Amino acid sequence: MPPAITRGARRGTSSQPLNAAELSEIGVVTVDADLVSCHVLPPDATAQMQASGRRRQAVIASRIQAARSYAETARCGRSELLAYFGDHYDPPCGRCDNDAATGTTGRAASHTDRPGPGRRVHHRLWGDGTLLDQDDYELIIVCDAIGYRTLTRAALANGLLTEL
Residue 8 pLDDT more than 50? Predict the structure, then answer.
């Protein structure tokens, strides 16, 4: 049974809910152009909104952790930054501060025995995501539901992370 529209509000007025995106995500409101239409609340609307808020907070926290990891890494800065945006670059670049500090100037050989960056992966606990970067010790993935995560290479070896 489709929800009944109970009232409408113009965008930008005080009667518009501040969390219209969350309400839209769980089907409580519909946002079309400049009109927000409210529907009858489902019985579990509060629980759904709380779960939606927790998901958003997890993604935001993972973005903060990704920025912190970038600032603290000793790996090639160019490779790390491009990985964050989903691009792959085989380090070292020889031009970033991290490579200058270690005296690295050349390009490393790429590894063909592992899944490549940009490939879709599935984590047993966190669901589907995208492999952003990897080296001999760790993998960086962004899961669709919870955001950025850094894993050890063991995640591939033990089947916790698989290619789609």
Answer: no
How far is it, in rounded angstroms, from Cα 163 to Cα 152?
A: 15
Domain positions in the chain: 1-57, 58-163
The 3-state secondary structure of the chain, one letter per residue: CCCCEEEEEECCCCCCCCCHHHHHHCCCEEEECCEEEEECCCCCHHHHHHHHHHHHHHHHHHHHHHHHHHHHCCCCHHHHHHHHCCCCCCCCCCCCHHHHHHCCCCCCCCCCCCCCCCCEEEECCCEEEEEEEECCCEEEEEECCCEEEEEECHHHHCCCEEEC
Residues 6+ apart with CB under 8 A from 96: 76, 77, 78
Which pLDDT belongs to residue 156?
84
What strands lie across the sheet with 5-10, from one edge to the other? 5-10, 35-39, 29-32
pLDDT of residue 122: 93
CA 27 to mean position of chain CA atoms? 23
pLDDT tens figures, 93-111: 888 888 888 777 655 545 4
Q: Can you state the angle between helices 77-84 and 45-72, rounded to 10 degrees?
A: 160
pLDDT tens digits along 15-33 = 443 466 667 777 777 877 7
